[in-house]
């Protein structure tokens, strides 16, 4: 690949589906970096899975072009078996697994028998990478949902794809299992240079895992960048609400908390409020204290607006307490409330 040639490029791609309302993607252009994890995010119906399927070659675009290493990605209209040969896709479903076969056989079956030594070594390597080697003799039917997802990813990786596509891959996996699986994927990317493109609706997932974010709204890219940049300085209110737990205020409600701004809308992340028991300015009532482990989520109301904030000093406040609340940081947007 030459320096001037994009690794994977989507150029002016449109794919529309007619139904109760028009959905799909519209005139999307983006470039995917090699050896990075790119996450496509957006609300339900924004076109995330459609874009992923287009990149893989499972559906044909109505217009535009997708290229991988300088060559066009062919869709089912030109390719007998849809899906690019150097890409693999994993979804949240496990229907493609043989549930009555062992873990080892599910993964090894993706490799030919022309070199049995390599087949055994490669299967062992991938199972080790995904912490499945101890389960190699177990039937898939006897595994948990998270373990089955690991087997699905192992099957995808054993054939050495250049691109791994993940469509809501952690949706049915519990939190602790998900965190470990994400760490394993990051390590595989670091070791092998694998490129990962994933679709997700979970802000914690994409902020901790992805190197780059692509934000879709109504089938169009509204902004893109690295997670820290988009979290701290989003260009759109839509992006901020996707990535953060916070409260959106109009001008009147913002003024009730001591913020004067000519912008139509402000958003305060949950960590952007400061609480003081010893002040009488901007008094609010704590309506609920929600225990979250190492922190609490406080629901407050000043009579004009209700909002949530984070309290790290667990046990310091009770429902009904009157506290002073000031805003230490906030975002402003020209757009109104959606």
Automatic annotation (TrEMBL):
Keyword S-adenosyl-L-methionine part of the UniProt annotation: no
Protein name: ATP-binding cassette domain-containing protein
Organism: Mucilaginibacter arboris
GO terms, molecular function: ATP binding; ATP hydrolysis activity
The organism's taxonomic lineage, starting at the top: Bacteria, Pseudomonadati, Bacteroidota, Sphingobacteriia, Sphingobacteriales
Membrane as UniProt keyword: no
Domain of life, source organism: Bacteria
Domain ABC transporter: 8-243
Record Pfam families: ABC_tran
Signal sequence annotation: none
Keywords per UniProt: ATP-binding, Nucleotide-binding, Transport
InterPro entries registered for this protein in UniProt: AAA+_ATPase, ABC_SmlMolc_Importer, ABC_transporter-like_ATP-bd, ABC_transporter-like_CS, P-loop_NTPase
């Amino acid at each position: 690949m030459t320096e001037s040639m994009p690794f994977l490029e989507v150029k002016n791609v449109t794919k529309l589906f007619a139904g109760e309302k028009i959905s799909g993607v519209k005139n999307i252009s983006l470039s995917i970096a090699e050896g990075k994890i790119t996450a496509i995010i957006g609300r339900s119906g924004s076109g995330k899975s459609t874009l992923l399927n287009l990149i893989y070659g499972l559906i044909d675009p109505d217009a535009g072009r997708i290229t991988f290493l300088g060559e066009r990605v062919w869709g089912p209209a030109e390719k007998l078996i849809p899906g690019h040969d150097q890409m693999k896709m994993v979804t949240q479903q496990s229907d493609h697994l043989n549930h009555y076969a062992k873990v080892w056989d599910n993964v090894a079956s993706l490799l030919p028998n022309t070199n049995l030594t390599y087949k055994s070594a490669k299967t062992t390597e991938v199972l080790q990478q995904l912490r499945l080697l101890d389960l190699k003799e177990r039937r898939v039917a006897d595994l948990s949902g998270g373990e089955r997802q690991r087997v699905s990813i192992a099957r995808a990786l054993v054939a050495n794809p250049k691109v791994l596509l993940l469509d809501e891959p952690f949706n049915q996996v519990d939190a602790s299992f998900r965190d470990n699986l994400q760490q394993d994927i990051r390590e595989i990317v670091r070791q092998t240079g694998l490129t990962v493109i994933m679709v997700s609706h979970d802000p914690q997932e994409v902020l901790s895992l992805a190197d780059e974010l692509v934000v879709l709204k109504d089938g169009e890219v509204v902004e893109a960048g690295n997670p820290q940049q988009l979290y701290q300085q989003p260009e759109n209110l839509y992006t901020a609400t996707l990535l953060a737990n916070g409260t959106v205020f109009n001008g009147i409600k913002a003024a009730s908390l001591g913020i004067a701004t000519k912008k139509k809308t402000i958003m305060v992340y949950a960590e952007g409020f400061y609480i003081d028991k010893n002040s009488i300015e901007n008094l609010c009532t704590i309506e609920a204290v929600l225990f979250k482990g190492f922190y609490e989520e406080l629901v407050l109301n000043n009579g004009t607006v209700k909002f949530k904030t984070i309290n790290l000093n667990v046990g310091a406040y009770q429902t009904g307490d009157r506290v002073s609340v000031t805003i230490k940081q906030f975002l402003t947007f020209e757009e109104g409330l959606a």
